[in-house]
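Here we describe the complex-level prediction in full. Unlike the single-chain runs in Section 2.1, the two entities below were treated as one system.
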Amino acid sequence: MGRGALIAVLLWSGAALAGEGSLRGTVKLVAVLPDGSRRPLPDASRAVVYVPDFERPAAEDAPHGKIEQKNKQYVPDVLPIVKGQTVDFVNDDPFLHNVFSSSRAAGRSGMDLGKYRGPGRTKSWTFSQAGIVDIYCDIHESMIATVLVLPNSAFVQPGKDGAFQIDHLPPGHHVVYVWARHGQKASADVEIRDGQIATLPPLEVAITPADDAHKDRHGGDYAHHPAEYGN
Amino acid sequence: MSLRLKLALAFAALAAVVLATTLALTYSALESAATQKVAADVHGAVQLFTNYVSEYRARTALQIESSFSSNSAFANELDPLNSEDDEFGLVSESESREETARKLQGLHQLIASADLTELKRNALFVVTNRRGEVVFNLADPARFGQTLSQLPLLNAAFSGRSGAALWSDRRLSSMATPLLRRGSDAQDDLLLVVSQPIRRGDKVLGAVLLGESVMPRLAAFEAMNGGSSQHATTRLALESPEAEFAGRDPLLLRALIATRAGAKDADGFLLDAEGRTFAVQGVRFGADQPLAGSRAFLMRDVKPEIADFIHAFFGKTFFLSLLGILLIALFFTQLLSRRLTWPLVRLEAAAREIQRGNLDVQVAPLGRDEVGRLAETFNEMVFGLKQRDQIKGLFKRYLDPRVVDELIRHPEKASPGGERRVLTLLFSDLVGFTTASEKLSPEELVALLNRYFETATRALAKHGATLDKFIGDAIMCFWNAPLPDDAHAAKACLSALALLDVVDALREPFRAAGFDTFDCRVGINTGPCVVGNLGSMDAQYYTAIGDAVNLASRLEGACKVYGTRTLVSHATVLAAKDAVAVRELDLVRVKGRGHPVRVFELLGPAGTALPEHALRYQEGLALFRDRRFTEALASFLKSPADPPSQVFAERCRDALATPPSEDWDAVHTLSTK
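The structure predicted for the assembly as a whole is:
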C-alpha cells in the first residue's frame, strides 16, 4: 500500500468521522393468511434491513461469508453480504450437493459451482453485482438460500424482537428497505443528520405464504430421488 | 236452396271457422314458441360463447405452457428479468436499464424467430415479463420494452389466473401501445382477449395476451342456428361491459344502441323493421362466467321460423294434408246433413202419399230426437186421419151428417161390435115396382129409383135416420143408434109421414115417366135389437138385427093385407107418445112369435083430427071383437073407400058364414111374409 492509499484511507475515515449518523427502528413480520387474517410472527431475526442508496463495496480482503450445507439445508438460509465479497459454500453432508443460481445478480451466465461431496469440501463464489440471489441445489429441491448482495455494509439483521440500529450512514435522504423471505416490498424514507440517531416508525412486513418451487439448473423439473445421487 | 245444402253449408262454414281458429291458435302458439326458442337460443349462445371462451383459454393456456413455461431456455431468460432486485432497491439505474434491455432483446429475438405459428395467427399476441414490459408484440414485432400497466387482464395473469375480456376496436386504438396486429379489421367487432400467465412452478414469470375477433364465432353460431331454416335470419351480437357492440347486422346494432339509450334493459323485445318481425333477446353473462358483465343478443326473423315450424310440423305435404282435412270434413258434412235430412225427406214422401189419398202410409221410427217425435206425431196424425176417414166412409152415406160429425168428434160413441139397444126400425117398399120393371128399361128404372132414393134418403136423414141398407126398391133404416135418441119412435113415425109426402110428390112425374102406380108401404116397429158393425175386416157395415127388425119388415109387408100405406106396432105408438095421430087396425100374430101385436095406421102428425071412417072403423072393430059381426059389418060397410073397413067387412061376412070357435080371440094371423 503506497502513500496514495494511505491518504485515501485517511480521507475516508476522516469523512466518516466527520459526517455520520445512525438509524434506529423496529421490524414487525406479519403473516397474511389466505383468508386475509393477519398474525404477527414472533421471530424477526431472519429479516434484513438495509440502506442501498450509496456504494461502499467490500475491501478485497474482506472476510468471506459462509453458508454450510447441513442435512440437506443451507445454514444460514439468508446471508446479507457486501458487493465484491466472497461466500464459501461448505458441504458438511457426506453426499453430493450442488450450488447454482439463475438470479440476475449471480451473473449473466448464472452461477453454478457444480456437484461436490462432503463433508468439509468447500467451493466459493464472489458476488460482484448487487441483487437478490436465490441459491438452490440441483439435487435437492428443498434446499433454498438467499444471498442479499448489497452495495454497502449499511445493513443489519434485527434481533428477534425486530429492533435494529444501523450506524455509519452518510447524512442526507435515504430509503430504508426490509427484505424477508416471502415478504412484500417494505421501505421507508428517512433523513439522516450528522451525529444523530434517526428513529423510524415500526416497519411492518407482510409475509404471504408461498411455496419455493423452482426449476432445476437446466430450467427443467426436478427428477425426484435419482438413484445416482444416493440421497 | 235445399235444407241439406243449407246444413252442408252451415257445417262447412263451421268446419272452416274451426280450422281457421285452430290455425290462428296454432300460429299464435308457434309465434310464442318461436319467441321462446329465440330466448332459449340466446342462452344457448351465451353458453356456447362461454364454452368457446373457456376452450380458447384452455387452448391458449396449453400453448403458453408448451411454448413458454416449459421452454427452459425462454424461462431461464425471462426469470431473471423479473428479479425483485429493482423492487428492493438493489439495482442501479444504469445497470438495470442496460441489463433489462439486453435480456429483453434476447427474449424478443427468441420469440420473433420461434415457430409460434399458432400463436402468431391471433389478431393480438403480446408477451410481457412480470413487470408488464413488452417482450413481444405482434402489432409491432420490431419494438419491445414498453410498459403495459393498469390492465386488469395482466394483473389477473400476474396473480396466476387466466383472464378474459371483450375489447373493442375503439378501446384498442385508444391505448398508448398499439396491440392489434396490422391488417386485422376490427370494425363493428369485438376482440376476445385472454391473458395467460407464464409460469415456472408457481412462480409467475410473465404474461401473454392473446386475442381474436369474435365475429367469425358469431358468424359460425349464426350459421349453425340458421341452419334449421333457410329463410330465418339469425344474428348474434355481443356487448362488452363498456357498452360496445360487436355484430354483423347493422339493424340489430342500431336497435341495441337505441335500446341502450332508451330503456334500461334490452332483454326481450320485438323489432319491426324492413317489413319483418325480429325477436330480440338479450342475456347477461353471469358473474361466474369468464365474460361477466358482457351481454349477448340474439335476433331472429320470427315469421320464417314459424313458417318453417309449420312446414316441419305438417311435412312437405302440408297443403295436401290441408286438402285432405277439408275433403274429409266435406265428406262428413255431406254425411251428417244427409243423415239429418233423410227423415225429413221420408216424411215429405209420406205426406205426398197422404196427399194422394193413401192413408196406409207409416213412417218407420226415426229415433228419439225432434225429428223422431215429428215422425211419431205424423204417424199418429195419419192414424187419426185414417180413423176419421173410416168413420166418414162408414156413416156418411146413411147417417145424418150431424150424427157423423158427432161420431167423428166422439168416436167412442160408436162402440165397436154389437150392442143391445132398443131401436125403432123402419122398412119401406115401393108399390108397383114389379109392374114398372117389366115395362121400363133397366136404365130408366135405375134413374127413377135413384131419383126416389135421393129424395127419400134426404127426408129420412132430415129426421135423423140411420140408413141401414137398400134392398132393391126397399129401404131399411133405424133410430137410436149409433147415437142415442130418446125421440126415436116419434122421429120414425114423422119420417114415415115425410116419406109418404115424398111419394105423393113424385107420383105425377113418375106416372109421366111410365111408372103407372107409384106408391109405398112403410112398416115401423120399436124393440130391442143388437146393433153394431157387422162383417169382416174387409167388408163391414153398420146394421141392426133381431126380432124387432123382422117384425118391422113383416109389418111393411102386412100393409098389403089391410090396404094401408103404413103399419106401426103398438110398441112404437107407445114410444112415440102423442107425436102422431093413429088408428088401431088390428091384432096380428106373426109366425114364430107367440104374442099378438096390436098394429096401427099413421093418420098424420099430432093433432090431426080422426076422419069419420076412422071413428066408424073403431066402432066396427069393437063390435067385431065382441062377435057382433052383423052390426060390425054394417059399421064397416058405411066406409066403402076405406080399404081396412073393406077387409073387415069381408071378415064379418066370413064369420057370419062360418062362425068362429068359442076360443076365437079376434087375432089375425099373418100368413104371408
